[in-house]
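Pasting two entries for a bug report.
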Amino acid sequence: MIIEMKNIRKSFGSNHVLKDVSFTLSGGEICALLGENGAGKSTLMNILGGVLPADSGQITVDGEQVVFNTPAESQRAGIAFIHQELNLINDLPIFENMFLGRELKTKMGSLDLERMFAETEKMFRQMNVNLDPNTMVGDLDASYKQIVEICRAMMTNASIIIMDEPTTSLTDQEIKRVFTMMRTLKDHNVGIIFISHKLNEVMEICDRYVVLRDGHRVAEGDVGIVTMNDLARFMVGFDVRTEPLTREKTLGAEILRIEGLTSDHSFRDINFSIKTGEIVGVTGLLGDGRSELFQAIFGADKVSKGKIFLYEKEIAIKSTTQAIKEGIAYLPRNRKENAIIKDLNIFENASIVTWSKFSKLGIIDVKKHQLTFEEQRKALQLKMGKLTDSITSLSGGNQQKVVLAKWLASDPKLLILDNPTQGVDVGAKEDIYDIILQLANRNIAIFVLSSEASEIIRVCDRALVMYHGVIQGEVTGKDMTEQNIMSLATGGRLTHE
């Protein structure tokens, strides 16, 4: 199948989102669709997927002009759209999820569970997927949920699959699993549109790229003849910094010290400390235990033994409420599940942690709270409309800034940032890195938890590398290289040892 989108225009009121954009895709190729948040990627794909109508322009499938008025019409033409929000039901087994909305029935009108199971099993064999169709979807990790979505798309005879940020919440091991599946699809002559902010993944999995900026197509070509820096420049319109962000720093007193901290299941015998004004990275691979460790420090999980010292005084943190009162803030790794509340607006999301701080006799001083948020909005360069707009109206990067604003309003002394640039574009990443450095210069101690060694190297003063629940080593200065971090993360030692 060959899809062509020609001279597509789309506006929302006075906001011209797409301006004469053309895009093509052939079966058997993987094409990256790149651009900053707000560049028009999702709008273009929503037009292809029948979610939105174009104002002008045309779409052809194998040379024949088509109009998709509904997602069902796009799907019948062989186009499947796998959204960031996976459309699976955790309380149903895989094989029933595979037939949601198009259930097979017996002659008596009841669900033909046996046939649906058999069809699912057949598809898994065809796609080399080692899953039991009886497994409950809620028991799958994020990568296998993606794979179930892909197989479901293939069962609708999809020839083109749109994948919107499919690896945002995945570990390195899970990403490899999804990439293996994508290569299998390519071998079956399926065309894939890969929307991602992770340029290293684009370089690894994609054949071609198309870049949108401010509603225009500004670049396209073969991935094999460009660099990640080229792609980043196309996306933002200028050279993006890649060097470590050095700074003049004056470290203060020790704020946190951990001695022998152990959990029965996730980590053991953890020892480290951090001073005010210091940025410490914590990294590793799948199952390293770093998120569980810092959730325990924040009072969200229990520990079996060990000591926590704040300002050299031993303390037992038994709840997140207590942690916040002690000046600890935690930005969780999965923004959509653990950091924002989709049913609340921007201001409500930004203020929920600090209602008690701005209340007297149970009444919240909304004006004072709004003034504080306005200060945070300016400092974080948050791009938004009205305070009452839905949090989901913002780009991923701006949602992350709202979450940061929420925690900064609590006036933390210790800030834990778990995967702080997840799902944000290259421009927003640079903004967040600058914010981290500014906060450190205000004598806030900061932990940056990330699987991306390049991110740790760019922004941190030193890094702790975890392996299977223990701190395998620490790197700083010239030793803070991707090679050393990977060596420690896989159970090895530093190269000079």
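Entry 2 (this is the one that rendered wrong in the viewer):
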Amino acid sequence: MRYLKLLYVQVLIGIALGVTIGHFSPEAGVSLKPVGDAFIALMKMLIGPIIFTTVVIGMAGMGDLRKAGKVGLKAFVYFEAATTLALVIGLVVANLVRPGEGLHVDVASLDAKSVSGYAEAARHSGGAADFLLHLIPRSFVGAFAQGDVLQILVVALLFGAALGRLGEHGRPVMNLLNDVSRVFFGIVAFVTRLAPAAAAGAMAFTVGQYGLGAIAKMAQLIACVYLTSAAFIFLAVGLILRACGFSLWKLLKLLKEELLVVLGCSSSEPALPALMEKLERAGCARQTVGLVVPAGYSFNLDGTCIYLTMAALFIAQATDTPMDLGQQLSLLVILLITSKGAAGITGSGFVTLAATLAATDQLPVAGMALILGVDRFLSESRAITNFIGNAAATLVVSKWNGDFDPTRGGEVLASDDGR
């Protein structure tokens, strides 16, 4: 019975209960959607203050903008390398397995109206200039009101840099923010106890709305995305962590509760505060956690990248649209851009796919209707892979930056061979 007191066991029970309700009573399952939505909303409410206090305290503690710039540069290099690798892996697997081959779908028969909203959102996502301007909030509190992670990060960096220059005069503000940070992490602990109910509600809605039959119809595509994501995590991410002296298995064990929350809610955002707290307790410097994790949630979307390449080629194969090597490499280049441009957009995976298909001018945007019914199931794979990828990125950047402290609990992540 003591196992029932463990949060990850409770979340597993919640997921199983949600699947059961959604399958045997779809209407009841759909009606439970607000339960999952409420939990996600509560966690999103806490993300802004937690990012702000963590980044400000870390920046002010650095006392040097050049140090923050070095952390940002190292994080950017890692993000670009990891997401490019994810895109390439997705492209290779989609060519080898060819999950859409043999469907012979007539584009004219597809319901283009069902995906018109995503295509419209993609057209209004803007270019590079719009994205850079979007980083600047209209007011100081506007970033928090909008809940925009990147805007909050910009405000926190400026505030932290200014506070650091005050020296001892800024000490009272630092002490206050430390206390405020503890309060918000305390609220996170309260809200996290609702995770089992949230997982049950979210899974009940997903299965009730779309049905397990949707999985059977698109089993090959779903299996390809999940297996490719697993290969990326256990091979690519695992080897990178091992090279830096960390164990992937120990990292997964450390984050098991958060991973189940991500699985149940089909979103990695509710687990962001707990991820930041655990990585800091495991030995990563606060300033590194504060910079890398929020930025990674927008720019280090490994799972989304795998999904994008596989979904695009699935549509090409299913609609008998030929794509030679040159066209696929062009698709890869476009994805390197569009996968970053959709940062912060709700439903970014599907919106980015729409933007990519439109940009290629070769693949039919209406082909997205083929995977619309199973996108919710695919989003779980995206969220889990993104979450693990950002946890790994923070550890690697912290090690590269020389601010990882193994004496602060880092032994729980150390590889068995001592590297």
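Dev reply: Rendering is fixed now. As a check, the viewer should reflect this: The two ends are 38 Å apart (CA to CA).
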